[in-house]
Design brief:
By secondary structure, this protein is of the alpha/beta class. The protein folds into 3 domains: 49 residues; 123 residues, 3-Layer(aba) Sandwich (Rossmann fold); 130 residues, 3-Layer(aba) Sandwich (Rossmann fold). The chain has 13 helices and 12 strands. It has a 6-stranded parallel β-sheet, with helices on both faces. Helix 1 crosses helix 2, helix 5 crosses helix 13 and helix 10 packs across helix 11. The termini are far apart. It comes from Glutamicibacter ectropisis. Keywords: DNA-binding, Transcription, Transcription regulation. Pfam families: LacI, Peripla_BP_1.
Length: 334
Amino acid sequence: MARQSAVTLKELAQALELSPSTVSRVLNDPSGIDSRWASPETNQKIYDLATELGYVKNQYAASLRTAKSLLIGVVVPRLQDYVLATMYEGIDEAALEHGYAAVVANSLDQPATHDLRVRKFLDRRIDGLILGDTPFDGATLKSLDKEKVPFVLVNRRSPGHLSVTCNDQMGGRLVGEHFAEFGSKKIFLLAGDHRMSTSIDRTTGFIEALAEQGIHLPVSHIAYGGFDTSSGEKATRDLLDAHGIPEAIFAVNDFAAIGALGVLRERGLKVPEDVKVVGYNDTPLASGVGLTSVHSPMHEIGRRGFDLLLKNIQGEECESVQLDTNLVIRSTSR
């Protein structure tokens, strides 16, 4: 007769003539090689019988014993954004490897929505948070600090808080040095959202690199807005109408850069002959249209974000992580 219910830990222990605590410790060892609880031969017998009988760990019961839910909450501005979606894939992948589940929610970069999403996660007893929607001033983090909730920032940073980002200031510098090599003087900067570290750091590095080469970027040639295609289109139209044709355009996001390319095309301007264009993040779409872009290790940022959060949850000493970038040169700036 077919078995009607899943085998229990106690039944496994009885069949092997071992204590339930020994079987539990062996099966809960994530490496599968710890010999502190039993010999390698006994370990193998436990794994073999558990597989044969179809033993499945009861995560709910485990969470009650350990006071952990094995859930983490992830808040991003928009999951439809390729950059954040790729980072979430890295988070989810790393979480699964450690027995956790990652649940994601959108904040639309609205503080009130962010607070609501975070509160919903906390009500569900999540073990920690990964936040990809934090402004540079960290205003949305005050309640988490007060409640001592473990959390890590990804993609964006805020001083005094754990984060995993790429070196955005260096990324901006790489673009400034690239334009300086061509002797470009009249340059437009599509700077994104001025509240976010991604905008602040990329812009700062870019302007500093130009200044070191004796190139001045007027404030009037900098347009702030969003990180999407429509924002890039609007910023490019406004700058062209106000200041004429530049020699080069740097957008701090690939999608804004693609918006700029569309406007240049509709104005009859050739890229790179008339105007050179560079974006940021090196998304697959950038490769598809030949856009020069600063490479951001998006998937790795997500994985490292979970790793850092897990250390935080476990009470280990933690430091922020900053990953390297490089400039991928393609046809829009050759």
